[in-house]
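Dear V.,

Thank you for sending over the compound details. I've combined the ligand you provided, magnesium ion, with the protein sequence from our construct and run the structure prediction for the complex. I'm sharing the raw inputs here so there's no ambiguity about protonation or stereochemistry in the SMILES, which I know was a concern on your side last time.
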Amino acid sequence: MKPSKVPALQGPSSRRATGQKRLLQTVRLPELVRENTQSLRRERAFQGITAARCLLSSRPMESKRILIVDDEQNAREALRTMLLEEGYEVSEASDGQEALEALPEFAPAVVLADVRMPKMDGITLLRKAREAGYDSAFVMMTAFGSIETAVEAMRAGAENFLVKPLDINAVLVVLSKVLEKTRLVRETETLRARVQERYRFPNIIGDSPELQSVFDVVKRAAPTRATVLLLGESGTGKELVAQAIHEESPRKGKPFIKVNCAALSESLLESELFGHEKGSFTGAVGRREGRFELADQGTLFLDEIGEISPSLQIKLLRALQQREFERVGGTQTLKVDVRVVTATNRDLAGEVKAGRFREDLYYRLNVVAVTLPPLRQRKGDIPALVNHFIEKYATNYGKVVRGLAPGTLNALLRHDWPGNVRELENVVERAVVLAPGSQLTADDLPATLRGPRPVARSAESLIPGATLYDIERESILRTLEMVDGSTARAAEVLGISVRKIQYRLKEYASSAPSSEANESNEDDTETDEEAGGRTH
Ligand SMILES: Nc1ncnc2c1ncn2[C@@H]1O[C@H](COP(=O)(O)OP(=O)(O)OP(=O)(O)O)[C@@H](O)[C@H]1O
Ligand SMILES: [Mg+2]
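Below is the predicted structure of the protein with magnesium ion bound, written out as structure tokens.
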């Protein structure tokens, strides 16, 4: 036995001062612990709720499993008796090695480990547990006076440490704090996972029902080889979705090649797509591979497809149908394995009707069509987009900008965004550059967006004479400002559904909210209007 180790539990410090209850190894510990626990209970009855009890009972613990690791049996027994009485589930190990073996089966929330032990000490145990991927929290028990060991334990990743001889109250307080922290971390992780699931694509922000139905189609089409036609106004995110389709497909890791069909003349575009042989036209000094070849095994994104000339439309049709083509000026037929995604902000069906776009090519391209809704139809996505762009540009410009000042979101919701997300991104970028403070205000927005100055608001000034609808509106907008625009987090805070927030934001964006709509949507059930027009 190590002489410096006193496997003891002490009662509250007031009693410790009397020295009466100092426990020695020779004393039969379980009885004393019980006595200690009972006297502690009596004290609580007098004092009301102790801090430990308060923490313990504040929230239900997800896991109350504690693994005690100590080479001294008496110390283990003393702790076990006390923890069992407090409702914990307890298991024991007599050294680090034994503890490591117990981790997978018992899966403790907290490992209460002595530092000094034969075979494997507590800190080595902690390191090995982390290496093996176990995430139980560690609380180390160190002998009085060995502060350095405690520091080393904390550095190695321990949550906390207790000084021996142990004090019952300290043990309970530390355990409940650690468990509370574990619970919060877990909750945050769950929430983050849920939010990610809702967003689905890492770079595409928005959880409006309109965007969700786009995601649904994209998720299903992406893993296939189907040609996808992306439709939608300028700035709605077509290119972003094209990239997401590639990233979500088995072609991820292979080339994603983009060609802007509007940027090149007919002959240059042909050579860009299919390549050319040396001397095939003036200036063709060497042989050049086309984009189709470069995209082999990967994805070819043809942007502004509505702009290509009739003769190129025929060549493209053949390349898509037969998956073969010749370089300009070449005779050799080349075969490639390319997935084609195209985009246009034109009404392609209208172009077909007007005879400007080949119908057969249109059907080839239009195997799966995805229409990106304009931002004005999904204003519920504005808060999350704004937050995303604030973060992006605050980092880019090295500025400390954390969110929107009260009233700013309202101005952003009122605007119609003809340039869609691109316009919103530009507005936020400009505001981040110009903002003098850590919050963006209406003054940082372009004059066209500012509108009337927001009335100064306070929670008190809201109540008298305000309608319930007004109060709800203020709560939703202010909560969104508080949680950096995340509708998922605002919904959690307010205890309502994300869908309801989305729906309300749409209402706030239109200048005159209809009272009928308010009344008919008091519950969280989805109505056709709330779900938004499906894009497909
Ligand atoms: N949902 C979104 N989340 C985050 N950023 C977005 C989103 N939608 C668009 N953006 C951003 O807005 C800008 C415009 O998007 P993108 O280039 O994909 O639009 P587009 O539909 O291809 O427009 P155009 O028809 O003018 O080419 C880009 O900077 C893009 O990153
Ligand atoms: Mg584009």
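A first observation: Residues 224 and 249 are 7 Å apart (CA to CA).

Warm regards,
I. M.
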